């Protein structure tokens, strides 16, 4: 875990890399596109629901309700969608980090077939969605504490993100299939906690998936170089 600050510093330092910037732009565009599609689907879904029950709702009220639901749902879904998109572009981030810092061992890694990337992305998104939904009743029970819900969702997502970010890199290594994991539970949790806090911070949340993937690449590669958990 002592290597985490250095890994994060290296990840931030590489934000100016053209390959990293290209991934950032692509991931942001895809994330916005997904939310736009979900917003349109929500609007037409509400319109159809009102029509089915014979309720009259002026267009502006339907739009307002759509925006309210989208804003509330976006708080939960943003990190899920952003990380799912990042999972899809993980190869680009990892390869950029390898090319700059670990060219001597990058040949040991492999790119994933498109079908495998889609499968892993969907599995990751589903796992995050289910975990957050299961945590929701506990968060609601602690609503009176004000900070309770944030703590519950923060802990759940720190555990999830630490694993997902590690596997974004590790799944490209031949040893991934043998069930071994390179990072300690403490390191995974610390990485996940940092990225979770970034995802909850305006502007930083746009960079969080990139920073998390790049930092995970540094942590995994340094473990491979030393053979010990960081």
Please provide a written account of the structure.
Keywords: Membrane, Transmembrane, Transmembrane helix. It is a multi-pass membrane protein. Pfam families: EI24 (PF07264). This is EI24 domain-containing protein. InterPro entries: CysZ/EI24 (IPR059112). The chain is mainly alpha-helical and 230 residues long. The termini are close together. It has a domain of 154 residues. The chain contains eight helices and no strands. The relative contact order is 0.15. Helices cover 77% and strands 0% of the residues. The protein is globular and about 65 Å long. Helix 1 crosses helix 8, helix 3 packs across helix 5 and helix 3 runs parallel beside helix 8.
Identify the notable features of this structure and list them briefly.
230 residues; mainly alpha
From the helix content, strand content and strand pairing, which structural class follows? Answer: mainly alpha
Counted by DSSP, the helix tally is: 8
Q: For the terminal residues, how far apart are their CA atoms?
A: 5 Å
Number of DSSP-assigned strands: 0
N-to-C SSE series? HHHHHHHH
Shape: globular
The fraction of residues in strands falls at: under 5%
The largest sheet, given as strand count, sense and whether it forms a barrel, is: none
The radius of gyration over CA amounts to 19 Å
Helix content: over 70%
User: Which regions have little confidence, pLDDT < 50, spanning 5+ residues?
Assistant: none
Q: Taking all residues together, what is the mean pLDDT? A: 81
Pfam families: EI24
Protein name: EI24 domain-containing protein
Keywords: Membrane, Transmembrane, Transmembrane helix
Subcellular location: Membrane
């Amino acid at each position: 875990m002592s290597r985490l600050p250095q890994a994060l510093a290296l990840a931030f330092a590489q934000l100016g890399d053209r390959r990293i910037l290209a991934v950032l732009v692509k991931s942001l565009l895809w994330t916005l596109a997904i939310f736009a599609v979900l917003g349109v689907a929500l609007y037409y879904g509400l319109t159809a629901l009102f029509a089915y029950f014979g309720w009259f709702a002026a267009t502006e009220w339907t739009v307002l309700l759509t925006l309210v639901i989208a804003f509330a749902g976006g708080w939960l879904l943003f990190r899920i969608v952003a990380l799912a998109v990042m999972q899809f572009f993980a190869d680009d981030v990892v390869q950029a980090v390898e090319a700059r810092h670990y060219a001597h061992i990058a040949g040991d890694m492999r790119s994933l077939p498109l079908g495998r990337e889609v499968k892993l992305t969907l599995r990751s998104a589903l796992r995050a969605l289910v975990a957050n939904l299961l945590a929701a009743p506990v968060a609601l029970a602690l609503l009176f504490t004000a900070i309770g819900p944030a703590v519950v969702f923060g802990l759940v997502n720190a555990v999830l993100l630490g694993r997902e970010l590690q596997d974004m890199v590790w799944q490209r290594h031949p040893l991934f299939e043998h069930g071994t994991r390179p990072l300690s539970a403490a390191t995974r949790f610390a990485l996940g906690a940092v990225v979770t806090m970034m995802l909850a911070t305006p502007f930083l949340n746009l960079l969080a998936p990139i920073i998390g993937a790049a930092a995970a690449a540094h942590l995994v590669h340094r473990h491979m170089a030393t053979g010990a958990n960081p």
